[in-house]
Amino acid sequence: MSIHIFGIRHHGPGCARSLYHSLHSLNPDILLVEGPPDGDGMLPLVTHPQMQPPVALLVYRPDQPQQAVYYPFAIFSPEWQGIDYALTQGIPVRFMDLPLVHQLAGEAGGAEGAEGAEGAEGAEGAEGAGEEDEIYYDPLGYLARIAGYSDGERWWEQLVEHRQESTDVFEAILEAMTALRQDVPPRDDPREAQREAYMRKQIRAAKKEGFQRIAVVCGAWHAPALVDMPAAKADNALLKGLAKTKVEATWIPWTYGRLAFKSGYGAGIESPGWYGHLWDCYQDGGDGGDGGDDSTLSQGGFCTNVTINRDQRVPKPAPTPSKFGHLGGFCTNVTINRDKKVPKPAPTDTSGHISKLNHQQSAIAIRWLIKVAQLLRQEDLDASSALMIETVRLAESLAALRDRSLPGLLELNEATQTVLCFGSDLPMRLIQDQLIVGERLGEVPDETPMVPLQRDLQQQQKRLRLPANPTEKQYELDLRKTNDLARSHLLHRLNLLGIPWGIRQSTRGKGTFKEGWRLQWHPEFAVKLIEAGIWGNTIDAAATAYARNQAQQAQALPSLTQLVETVLLANLPDALPEVMHRLQTEATLNRDVAQLMEALPPLAQVLRYGNVRQTDTRMITSVVDGLVTRICLGLPLACASLDDEAAQHIDQRIQQMNYAISLLNNSEYKQSWQQVLWQLADQANLHGLLAGRSCRLLLDAGVFKGNDASRRLEFALSQASEPPQAAAWIEGFLQGSGLLLVHDHTLWQIIDDWITQLPGNTFTEILPLLRRTFASFSTAERRQMGERVKRGTSVETPGIKEEELDSDRANAVLPIVAQLLGVR
């Protein structure tokens, strides 16, 4: 009986390939993989023809779906390749981590990342930590720093991902992790101890079942804990009395973007797109086959026999080379001294195989740069064949200078930015997003367990030709078309359910039949769909039930009117009567004029554009009639005795109300509203901001003529008015548009005279308010005003008056003008 421990990094093509060949050589009779045993029932789907990584195993609590854990897998994940190998060969395969029935029991909070998939190896926790914490959180990063690398990603890539097939690499990893764990004091982390205890328990169970060759795939940090196993009694004591809860598991599509470390995934990698490229090259023969002996790769820096010396300043004598000393690129006899930097080992003599590997390694770089060139050409950027050749040569030269067997991503990026991007970092951002990270979205089989709501959404996506794409895509829907109208209904229903797959965008033109959307699918929407499943089995039914519930829970009138608008946009006729009844009740009882004004614009939008959406808006008309009447009656009293903050709030509502009245295009509404504004413009002791705003709106509507506005402005700026009140009047009258002031010379003169007669102290006091008003003008408007002030002319030079016209001279040119115009 033998137990073989394979410590891996959770996402890496070189490690995955090495694991595949190791399993092929070992031919185990059972495979245990670090992962939740709750997902064992999902493993057979791994080999389904429709399964296309990246995907994630989602385990969640049915009673609280927001408590969920993702376990992402890419095609180049070692665990995925191990599971695929076992299922293909008919070998039993099981997950062996601590079940989530225990880990999620009593947990609070939202959805988690794949913390269970990475354990202690996330570098995120190492930020700002001490040396011992750094080793615990990011052991590979610590070894990379010892070897002289700036980060663990590049070091691991050079040492492991670029290696040819090697089955001994796992023994080297185990030796290094063992040395690190022996030097670090045990952490007080009960959950980590329970996880490792359960893994050992699963290994013992496999032994009892009579399996002779047991293969164990786990994170590199856990490997030493599974080699030297304590007594079963100690592990059982750790696992005794754990709480339980019910969980369910399923597969969901994942994206390369969510595999990236920057997305917040603790086990993330920096370049999933690049790793996918390496794996594709391995599978397509881009590396030229099996690659021969590993001794041809001299990378330097990986320590297999590690002795960490805290006390001695001088490294210990190098021990006798271990059996792993032939592994090119892994320094086998290295002492890690915390007080002295350890140099890289001398490169191994590789002359025997360099010529054979040059072609293999160049193929990876060339195929990558072909993708880069294709991307740049799609964006109309220069990427000629000559530049491609120079880029490859520069990347290979950089790799040679750094004593590396082939260009890595760092060398390729530096060469690309220098040659293809001409030193600019802007094209590199495009390459980073679309190639280095990538935009691939996985697929799961139709047989995958789903809640009915998920399946209904998939069917609608296919019917409406709306694919779930991880990249942003713009849609401009024509609501006169049946399919586009159905698309709009679906997106509005999902937004109502809290699944913002589509975000509304503004559209060009004034057509009311157009609707812009920006769509981008995120994997976590799968959890939101599970959460929304409590409302119904279809999107329509769930949105209807949710709208009814929101109507009963809503406490404010504006939220109810927003809900009415959403229900109509989402075309939920079964929910509309109950929502409207709740709205009418609240509108009748509500006496807050500001809330009534805030509630009107959404209803005005519905009445204005309802016919385009083929919705029945008759029930809303009576509500709008009542709102407009109550607002017009109550607004003058509501505007009395307001401070600056309250006046700003009412001013915003007045502007929204004015826009809503214009949308409704009802003569009775417009007449009632203008009468209220006229009353406010002349109301005594009204805040200047509101008086000025009312005057401006009436001037724009043509109710006031220029003389009416000038007279009120002159009165507001008279010496009888307090300067702050006068400045607030100017703000309300002019805010947002200086064209009126530029072209109306009478208004200009009145304001100019008022400002020049202000005392110095008073001018300083109101200057911030004036600056805020003039800051709302466009740059061109401010420039015209500045030039006019610079010229020192407050009023425009008068033109020729009619009585000064010389009729004799004018008549003399009329025949010539008639001849030019062809008029006899």
SS elements, strand count: 12
CA gyration radius, whole angstroms: 37 Å
Strand percentage, roughly? Answer: 5-15%
Query: Oligomeric status of the shown chains?
Result: single chain
- Tell me the distance between the termini: 118 Å
Q: Considering DSSP H and I runs of 4 or more, what fraction of the residues is helical? A: 40-55%
Structural class: alpha/beta
Low-confidence stretches: 108-129, 286-357, 795-802
Biggest sheet features: 4 strands, parallel
Strand order across the largest sheet: 1-6-2-5
Helix segment tally: 35
Choose one word for the global shape. Answer: elongated
Average of per-residue pLDDT values: 79
Strands, helices and their partners?
Elements: E1 2-8, H1 13-26, E2 30-33, E3 55-61, E4 64-73, H2 78-89, E5 93-95, H3 100-103, H4 115-118, H5 131-137, H6 139-146, H7 152-161, H8 169-183, H9 190-208, E6 213-219, H10 223-227, H11 232-239, E7 248-253, H12 256-259, H13 272-284, E8 302-309, E9 330-337, H14 354-378, H15 385-401, H16 409-420, H17 426-437, H18 452-463, E10 473-478, H19 482-496, E11 502-505, E12 514-519, H20 525-532, H21 539-553, H22 557-569, H23 576-589, H24 593-609, H25 618-638, H26 644-664, H27 667-681, H28 688-700, H29 706-716, H30 723-734, H31 739-743, H32 745-756, H33 760-775, H34 779-791, H35 807-821
